[in-house]
Design a protein that fits this description.
The chain is 76% helix and 0% strand. The chain is mainly α and 202 residues long. The protein has a domain at 1-69: Serine Threonine Protein Phosphatase 5, Tetratricopeptide repeat (Alpha Horseshoe). The N and C termini lie far apart (74 Å).
């Protein structure tokens, strides 16, 4: 890769990290004009497009990256994330499955695959992927939050597991969710107390 392109990628990456998205977008465009067929560059530029809400432009770049490197896990992951955002659930699941296939230890890929599985109504698969995400990164707030939502959605709800993962997500910096807290409180209130259990007839 030409040194000039590497320098531009470094500069764009710094702008992206500080939230200067338009500047990063412009710098990546200059780099792509010099080297249009480098998968890692295409994926990085696509990530900026995604953050700017330009999902179709991002999608085009990612498809090109995959045409050059079909095993590019980062491209599959971002393509799947974009598809989730656009509610293309079948495409999201397929792309994220590829992402976990090519990078099985990436907690983000497993988290998003769990979300995609949940969208399709596949509860067990969703739980498996979200739990894998937390196993890989116990400090992953989003995965803990998503597990809390999943356990609350069970029939009956798995309250203790939901409460535990929700609290863990809060401890890791997630924002409080009044709706979830209300559901947990209602579910706890509806459960029989220890004294009620001991006096219940068989």
């Amino acid at each position: 890769m030409p040194q000039a392109v590497l320098s531009l990628m470094s500069e764009a990456g710094q702008s992206f990290a500080t939230g200067e998205l338009e500047k990063a977008n412009s710098i990546y465009a200059r780099a792509l004009a010099m080297a249009p067929n480098i998968p890692s560059l295409l994926v990085s530029a696509a990530a900026v497009k995604t953050r700017l809400g330009k999902l179709e432009e991002s999608r085009t770049m990612l498809r090109k990256a995959l045409s050059l490197d079909l095993d590019n896990a980062a491209a599959w992951k971002l393509l799947g994330m974009n598809a989730l955002e656009q509610k293309r659930d079948d495409e999201a699941f397929a792309c994220l499955a590829q992402a976990t296939l090519h990078d099985s230890n990436n907690p983000r890929a497993h988290n998003y695959l769990g979300m995609a599985a949940g969208r399709k109504g596949w509860g067990e698969a969703s739980e498996q992927e979200l739990r894998r995400a937390v196993e890989l990164d116990p400090n992953y707030a989003d995965a803990n939050f998503n597990l809390a939502v999943l356990y609350l959605g069970r029939n009956p709800p798995l309250i203790e597991l939901a409460r535990r993962h929700y609290q863990r997500a809060l401890d890791l910096g997630a924002k409080r969710d009044p709706a979830i807290e209300n559901l947990i409180a209602k579910s706890v209130a509806s459960q029989p107390s220890d004294s009620q259990r001991s006096s219940a007839r068989p």
